[in-house]
């Protein structure tokens, strides 16, 4: 039992590969009106004209969604398991997660940062979160750390005794970190972002758990670099997924 317990308050999101640019939306949309086209080269893709921006805005505003599907992004995500369970509610992406049956899970656990809101006020469907008191913040940190360490030591003892990984993992809490690849297109990502980020100006505001919102923020930043016009009109149209 020599593994040192790591406590983290962050998430990791990396763009592994992508075939996604604003010109993909135009290419897919215009086949409806002008038929087969030659795909624009990378230089042309950077020179979108005013009418091209207008077309993307029209598609977003009037919710013509399929042109936003002809692209792909694969993200690598490290986050606590309870975040992944929320991710997988979105059945519009492909997921592959590391398995506690086939490898020993690493002793890394999520503990809320001091600035993380802790108090929930209001009724379900209409509630707000507010900062905790210093005493609540200290209590959460102490209890999460203590229970995480105790659980992982129990896990190690069972592994050392020859118990199968799929059995020993039963004692591990939901704040242990896992990792996965998630692949989706821009339409799916916009659906995800509309639900998992609280952004001023959203037509249908959502109130996500902070930890999955941390992932969504990083994913949106990476996507915006790839498809800046699509991201811009998504925001200007109230962040409603087409």
TrEMBL record:
Binds 4 FAD per tetramer. Each FAD binding site is formed by three monomers. FAD binds at residues 66, 89-91, 97, 185-187, 191. It holds the Pfam family Thy1. It comes from the Bacteria. It is an enzyme of class 2 (transferase). Signal peptide: none annotated. It catalyses: dUMP + (6R)-5,10-methylene-5,6,7,8-tetrahydrofolate + NADPH + H(+) = dTMP + (6S)-5,6,7,8-tetrahydrofolate + NADP(+). DUMP binds at residues 86-89, 97-101, 169, 196. Keywords: FAD, Flavoprotein, Methyltransferase, NADP, Nucleotide biosynthesis, Transferase. Its EC number is 2.1.1.148. CDD domains: ThyX (cd20175). Pathway: Pyrimidine metabolism; dTTP biosynthesis. PROSITE patterns: THYX. Its cofactor is FAD. Belongs to the thymidylate synthase ThyX family. Homotetramer. This is Flavin-dependent thymidylate synthase. It comes from Gulosibacter molinativorax.
